[in-house]
Design goal:
By secondary structure, the chain is α+β, with helices and mostly antiparallel strands. The chain is built from four helices and three strands; from the N terminus they run βααββαα. The protein has one domain.
């Protein structure tokens, strides 16, 4: 078992993720301790790119440009009426 501080874990996380494949890694933060466990997950269970079907929320969505146009108009209207 390897015990590391949260600061050391933050500076080199890949090292401890790799180490967790072979042994237990305990991350210590103050008086708290967190166990880092390695659990392989089958790729079939979680595909790389989840496929989402278009739904009502997507149909109602607006682009970032449309949002900015609306915000600018609202702000302009608020300050013009003062």
């Amino acid at each position: 078992m390897t015990v590391v501080s949260s600061k050391e874990f933050a500076t080199r996380p890949a090292r401890y993720y790799n180490l967790a494949q072979n042994e237990q890694v305990l991350i210590k933060r103050g008086k708290s301790r967190y166990h880092l466990a390695y659990m392989p997950i089958p790729v079939e269970k979680y595909p790389e790119q989840p496929i989402l079907e278009p739904d009502e929320n997507l149909r109602r969505a607006i682009t970032a440009e449309e949002l900015l146009d609306r915000i600018h108009k609202d702000i302009h209207d608020k300050f013009r009426n003062r």
